[in-house]
Amino acid sequence: MEIIKGAGEWARPAAEAASDWVEHLKSPDLSIGTYCIPAGGVDTQSPHTEDEIYVVTSGRARIVTPSGAAEVGPGAVIFVPAGEEHRFVDISEDLALLVVFGPAYGSRTDTPA
């Protein structure tokens, strides 16, 4: 067992950064981290080679994918399959996301399906 302190908690990105990603735990089968984007900020991420679950712990925004868009806020749980374009936009409140990757982030080197 491991207690992961600070996971999903808001932290302001460095002054020159648009967002902040901190990985808290990594095993071969999954990884957990926190992704923070300030209100009015820009989500600059690219599609990942791993499946991903976001849990919104604080803040408000919209998530946009090729299949549609949705308003998200605290408590929202979002699944994004490997390779799917996705972006958080219209970030109206500082956004903190607990992120779970399966398998671990960066562990797949091939191109997603």
From TrEMBL:
Highest rank taxon of the organism: Bacteria
Domain Cupin type-2, chain residue ranges per copy: 35-101
Family annotation (Pfam families): Cupin_2 (PF07883)
Name of the featured protein: Cupin domain-containing protein
Organism: Nonomuraea zeae
